[in-house]
Design goal:
The protein is an alpha+beta fold and 352 residues long. 43% of the residues lie in helices and 16% in strands. It folds into two domains: 212 residues, Hypothetical protein, domain 2 (Endonuclease III, domain 1, Orthogonal Bundle); 124 residues, Alpha-Beta Complex (Nucleoside Triphosphate Pyrophosphohydrolase). The chain contains 14 helices and seven strands. β1 and β2 form a beta hairpin. It binds a DNA duplex (11 and 11 nucleotides) through α2, α3, α6, α8 and α9. Its cofactor is [4Fe-4S] cluster.
DNA sequence: TACCCGTGGCA
DNA sequence: TTGCCAAGGGT
């Protein structure tokens, strides 16, 4: 019995029934792989269904606006994934007649598609023999072969790619790669792996040495930077003043209530008044705090306070800002914690 | 290479 | 509550 034989036998009996495994349409596999980057299966399910309902084909997605696409991605995180997917699909429509190429090297040229995703699409949709080395595969092979190198290093990934190519099923490379995902999610999990249930236990060097809990080796991550913010909620004639974030950087292109970063000793009311006066040419008075929340990103933590503001005077708004009626609050993609604020406002103010 | 880029579940 | 971390890619 080879590694692939044992793994596939286990997979065909125990593999998960997932929405994106219903057919091998390359576009659908592509969408699922992008959504699943650094994101749990349970978080993806509903987004995937809604996405394919609205954008069932590359052509349907290619014609959509970036703002609508971002609205469908809102809450999933890593929003450049959505922008890249849109750009990639437009490229496929323009360059490949709407059909995703089957060559891993060509797939990888698409924006947002790296080595892992290219290998996954090629192997699952087109049955190409290609490795798809993600966090699961790094963990599994670190344990199988007792690799003690940091899995964040490129050299470690290359070594695992070579090992995958030595063991991948030539008949069913896509199933082999997906079986590794399921093994990593169900058996060879990060903490306290369930080795007695593992179909590869008899091949696993870490299990033999009883060091499976020590692997894989991963360099410690940097602590997130703490940021304190004050945001102003201004209402005038039933509409709210909102602002679009810059096209690059954190939460790029998403919408928020105008906010300022607070330095040590800053007073929220003064900072906010300045923000509205200088950047938006609006005169406001800060009233009471209406919501405070903490929002943690992968590398940053926001402590944000929302203040209700009284509008006094102001000029016409520039392009990156606008007045949004309460029925329009659900039509723009919100930046992180601002979504909670927008929802609260929409709920608090019934349509009259 | 190291850093940037979100979110939610879980121990 | 806090820290860890999950089907990565771009720069």
């Amino acid at each position: 019995m080879t590694l692939a034989t044992q793994l596939l036998a286990w997979y065909y009996k125990n593999g998960r029934d997932l929405p994106w495994r219903r057919d091998k349409d390359a576009y659908k596999i592509w969408v699922s792989e992008i959504m699943l980057q650094q994101t749990r299966v349970e978080a993806v399910r509903d987004y995937y269904t809604r996405w394919l309902d609205r954008f069932p084909t590359p052509a349907a997605l290619a014609q959509a606006s970036e703002q609508e696409v971002l609205t469908y991605w809102q809450g999933l995180g890593y929003y450049s994934r959505a922008r890249h997917l849109l750009a990639g699909v437009r490229e496929v429509c323009a360059e490949y007649g709407g059909r995703v190429p089957d060559n891993p090297a060509l797939i990888q040229r698409l924006p947002g598609v790296g080595e892992y995703t290219a290998g996954a699409i090629a192997s699952i949709a087109y049955n190409q023999v290609a490795p798809a080395v993600d966090g699961n595969v790094l963990r599994i092979f670190s344990r199988l072969f007792c690799l003690e190198e940091d899995i964040a290093k490129t050299a470690t990934k290359r070594a695992v790619e070579r090992l995958v190519m030595q063991h991948i099923s030539r008949q069913c490379p896509g199933d082999f790669n997906q079986a590794l995902m399921d093994l990593g999610a169900m058996i060879c999990i990060p903490r306290r792996p369930r080795c007695p249930l593992c179909p590869l236990a008899d091949l696993c060097e870490a299990y033999r040495r009883e060091v499976q809990d020590m692997l894989p080796v991963r360099a410690p991550k940097k602590a997130p930077q703490l940021v304190t913010l004050a945001a102003g909620v201004v209402q005038r004639a039933g509409k709210f003043l909102v602002q679009q974030r810059p096209a690059t950087g954190l939460l790029a292109g998403m919408w928020e209530f105008p906010a300022t970063e607070m330095g040590a000793g800053d007073v929220a009311a003064a900072q906010l008044r300045e923000k509205f006066r200088c950047e938006l040419q609006q005169t406001v008075e800060i009233e009471e705090k209406i919501l405070q929340c903490r929002h943690t990103f992968s590398h940053r933590q926001w402590d944000i306070a929302f203040y209700r503001c009284q509008w006094l005077a102001g000029d016409k708004l520039r392009e990156q800002a606008c007045w949004l009626g309460k029925t329009e609050l659900g039509t723009v993609p919100w930046a992180g914690p601002h979504h909670k604020m927008a929802l609260a406002l929409a709920e608090r103010l019934p349509n009259k």
